[in-house]
Amino acid sequence: MKGTLELNDMIFWANHGCFTEERIIGNRFEVQFSATYDMEKPAQTDALLDAANYQLIYNLIREQMELPSNLLECVARRILDAVAANFPELEEMTVSIAKINPPLGGEVGASRVTLTRTR
């Protein structure tokens, strides 16, 4: 039984960007994460040890968001790499990172990068 795990609307203050000001001041980022995997066993046993642990996934995402990068593509890749290394049962993962009010010289609500990894 395939299912989808989602962590939505995670908010982080981080120092990602190419401009010096972004690296010093930082900005608000919103992260979405989803992954599909076989949920038959955890659905039957009701045991956390049989499921992908949301808290551990969140911790991996937070750790990667804390490491400054020029590009959101790099941060997204690091997140997928870290989660994939720790959760081999996840078959497809998608991460989306939005920089809120990016410094683009005009009114822009957010810029967003989305990456998907399939095994």
Briefly summarize what is shown:
This protein has four helices and four strands, in the order βαβαααββ. With 119 residues, the chain is an alpha+beta fold. It has a four-stranded antiparallel β-sheet with strand order 1-2-3-4.
Question: What does this entry look like structurally?
Answer:
With 119 residues, the protein is an alpha+beta fold. It has one domain: GTP cyclohydrolase I, C-terminal domain/NADPH-dependent 7-cyano-7-deazaguanine reductase, N-terminal domain (GTP Cyclohydrolase I, domain 2), CATH 3.30.1130. Helices cover 33% and strands 36% of the residues. It starts with a strand and ends with a strand. The mean pLDDT is 94.
Strand order of the largest sheet: 1-2-3-4
CATH superfamily: GTP cyclohydrolase I, C-terminal domain/NADPH-dependent 7-cyano-7-deazaguanine reductase, N-terminal domain
Label the overall shape.
elongated
Any guess at the CATH architecture? 2-Layer Sandwich
Q: What's the CATH topology name?
A: GTP Cyclohydrolase I, domain 2
The number of helical runs is 4
Question: How can the largest sheet be summarized?
Answer: 4 strands, antiparallel
How many domain modules?
A: 1
Q: Give the SSE string.
A: EHEHHHEE
Question: How many β-strands, per DSSP?
Answer: 4
Distance between the termini: 17 Å
How much helix is in the residues? 25-40%
